[in-house]
Amino acid sequence: MAARIIDGKAEAARLRAAVRDEAAAFTTRHGLAPGLRVIIVGDDPASRAYVRTKTRMAAEAGIAGELIELPETSTTVELLSRIERLNDDPATHGILVQLPLPAHMDAEAVLRAIDPGKDVDGFHPLNVGRLFSAGRSLPEDLLVPCTPWGCLHLLRTTLGSDGLAGCHAVVIGRSNIVGKPMAALLLGADCTVTVAHSRTRDLPELCRRADILVAAIGRAEMVRGDWIKPGAVVIDVGINRVATGDGGSRLVGDVAFAEAIRVADAITPVPGGVGPVTVACLLRNTLIAAQASTRRTGSPAPR
Ligand SMILES: NC(=O)C1=CN([C@@H]2O[C@H](COP(=O)(O)OP(=O)(O)OC[C@H]3O[C@@H](n4cnc5c(N)ncnc54)[C@H](OP(=O)(O)O)[C@@H]3O)[C@@H](O)[C@H]2O)C=CC1
Ligand SMILES: Nc1nc(=O)c2c([nH]1)NC[C@@H]1CN(c3ccc(C(=O)N[C@@H](CCC(=O)O)C(=O)O)cc3)C=[N+]21
Ligand SMILES: [Mg+2]
Q: Which residues take part in binding NADP(+) (predicted)?
């Protein structure tokens, strides 16, 4: 039987609707909408397209999104001073700096400079540390990295809230954006977790032992159908643009979808899987950050 296709687009729409309701209540109560600032440095067309999607989705959910576009030639110091101003701005509840930054910039210093309470990507070392030291339940004000949170959400939707316990989860990829925080979340969900990477020996054999397989590699359709355990749940994080015969291009994941669908119990498509849920989580994190800021200061309103 063909696998169930996990509908990330529909799940993202549900998440955004919930954010929209709460954002409206926040705005009524505080006279100020939750505010998100997305900073992009340089003019990579794919990155620009992503961030425009983020700010458009924000507006639809009642979040005041603003895109800050800086030239490729900006310096780390210039970006840091921009971040400091946003840290001090009471109308800014969430700050996201689109990665990767140009090679001449110090990305680590930039991520450290973002107020951890406004760090809607969850990449600040304080938030990373809080995630890795959390147990089975996450602190409710914790800003969790959006992509792995989205993957966990889709897994819970597919397997049920207790359906992950005891599963062997294999995560391919160990980046700070996806692989490592994904492993932390799966551990917290009582999975037995293996993290694979480019030096892992016999990756196909390891994958065949996975009840849950998360692919976050960045290599088009690398994971083949015969790497997948029959009945496994497959989460494909990869976003790869490949050329088509007619001179155009299309998006594919890190998993050979047509093969995997014959073996897996359930699988996320690309596009329409993890990507949209990632963006919904960003809006959710902005709302969480805004709500937490009012608990700290009593009021987020400018004075
Ligand atoms: N849908 C979404 O919302 C998002 C999608 N993405 C996509 O997910 C993918 C991964 O992103 P990201 O984590 O940032 O990428 P990185 O390039 O930072 O990390 C890739 C990881 O894959 C591992 N890897 C590379 N080649 C192999 C191989 N042949 N065998 C096993 N492991 C390998 C690397 O291993 P090593 O550490 O040894 O180098 C590394 O750990 C990309 O396609 C990206 O576009 C990313 C973020 C969000
Ligand atoms: N600081 C930072 N935070 C990020 O979260 C971050 C980042 N930098 N840099 C780049 C990656 C990538 N990423 C995606 C988000 C949504 C889609 C998405 O919505 N994809 C649609 C398709 C989009 C299209 O058609 O091009 C889908 O999969 O259906 C994709 C990729 C977030 N990232
Ligand atoms: Mg750098």
A: 173-175, 239
Cite the beta strand spans of the chain per DSSP E.
4-5, 35-41, 64-70, 94-97, 168-172, 192-196, 212-215, 233-236, 240-243, 249-252, 266-267
* Ligand 2 residue neighbourhood (C-beta within 6 Å): 50, 96-99, 121, 146-147, 239, 251, 270-272, 275-276, 278-279
Question: Is there a shared CATH topology between the 31-121 domain and the 145-275 domain?
Answer: yes
Mean pLDDT of 220-228: 98
Which CATH architecture describes the domain 145-275?
A: 3-Layer(aba) Sandwich (3.40)
Q: Say how many residues make up the chain.
A: 303
| 296 pLDDT tier (thresholds 50, 70, 90) | confident
Which residues have a catalytic role annotated?
Answer: 54, 98, 121
What is the Å distance from ligand 2's center to 11 Cα? 16
Q: Residue 283's pLDDT band (boundaries 50, 70, 90)? A: very high
**ipTM confidence score:** 0.98
Q: Give, for 86, the enclosing helix (H) or strand (E).
A: helix 76-88
- Give, as residue ranges, everything with CB less than 5 Å from ion ligand 3: 107
Domain ranges of the chain: 31-121, 145-275
Cα dist. 35→32, 82, 105 in Å? 8, 16, 26
Rg (CA), the chain: 19
What spacing in Å lies between the alpha carbon of 275 and ligand 2's midpoint? 5
Look at ligand 1, atom 38, and give the residue with the nearest C-alpha.
198
Distance 237 CA to ligand 2 centre (A): 10
Over residues 104-111, mean pLDDT? 98
Note the ligand closest to the C-alpha atom of 50: 2
User: What is residue 301's predicted lDDT score, i.e. its pLDDT?
Assistant: 54
Name the CATH topology of 31-121: Rossmann fold (3.40.50)
Instruction: Decide if pLDDT at 302 tops 80.
Output: no
